[in-house]
Design a protein that fits this description.
The protein is of the alpha+beta class and 223 residues long. It is 35% helix and 14% strand. The chain has 7 helices and 7 strands; from the N terminus they run H-H-E-E-H-E-E-H-E-E-H-H-E-H. The N terminus and C terminus are likely disordered.
Length: 223
């Protein structure tokens, strides 16, 4: 049985067994997916869209604005993941087909960054059930942010070079759940709800977002 996210005062940090059952139900072989997770619970898995859920992928900044709008002024969200510099919102099946058309009719719809809409016939790679332990490379940027005792403040040119080196050496964050599925029938936003949130997020951005078209991509996210 589905429930509204407002029924709970917290968001799950990792996927529960009930949430894993729901994710696996998207596959034609749920038992096979469960077997993969049993062998490697920290490994991502590719699942088809269009049956249990669709996925709307957004630019990270815009996606967080949409999620914030849904939680502060709207009904909340279903599962939400972060991967490859983008935010993935899980939505009701059929949303991937309808949302681009609805945004096309809105005055502020063109102000939204590119949305990748994954529906029937598409597949996405979902984050692992449990996030892997952060390695030394992921912890390194935090250590570099703290100067050693007695170190002098670098000049502008040195600072820019240091920042450039940090960007080049900092690895891409691991795929992770922002709102992990924790029930067998999570509430999912539909196209109208996401349209409402996208339009208001675009308005709040003050027109600074680049005007581009919404696209549908039939390819899976990289694992």
């Amino acid at each position: 049985m589905s429930r509204s996210p407002q029924d709970s005062l917290h968001t799950a940090a990792f996927v529960t067994p009930a949430g894993a059952d729901w994710l696996a139900s998207a596959s034609a072989s749920p038992r096979g997916v469960q077997a993969l997770w049993a062998a490697a619970p920290t490994a991502p898995v590719t699942l088809p869209c269009g049956t249990a859920f669709d996925v709307i992928s957004m630019d990270a900044l815009f996606g967080r604005r949409v999620v914030s709008r849904l939680w502060t002024d709207g009904p909340g969200t279903g599962p939400v993941a972060a991967q490859g510099g983008r935010v993935m919102l899980f939505a009701t099946p059929g949303t991937a087909q309808r949302l681009p058309a609805l945004l096309g009719w809105e005055e502020w719809g063109a102000a939204a960054p590119p949305l990748l809409c994954y529906g029937r016939g598409d597949a996405v790679t979902v984050p692992p059930l449990f996030p892997p332990d952060p390695g030394p490379q992921e912890a390194a940027p935090l250590e570099r942010d703290t100067p050693e005792s007695g170190a002098r403040k670098p000049g502008a040119r040195e600072s820019r070079a240091a920042e450039s080196g940090t960007r080049e050496s900092t690895p891409m964050p691991s795929p992770r759940w922002l709102v992990a599925p924790d029930v067998r029938g999570p509430w999912l936003p539909g196209p109208e709800v996401l349209l409402w949130a996208c339009v208001r997020a675009a308005r709040a951005a003050g027109g600074d977002l680049v005007s581009t078209a919404v696209t549908s991509a039939p390819a899976a996210f990289p694992g």
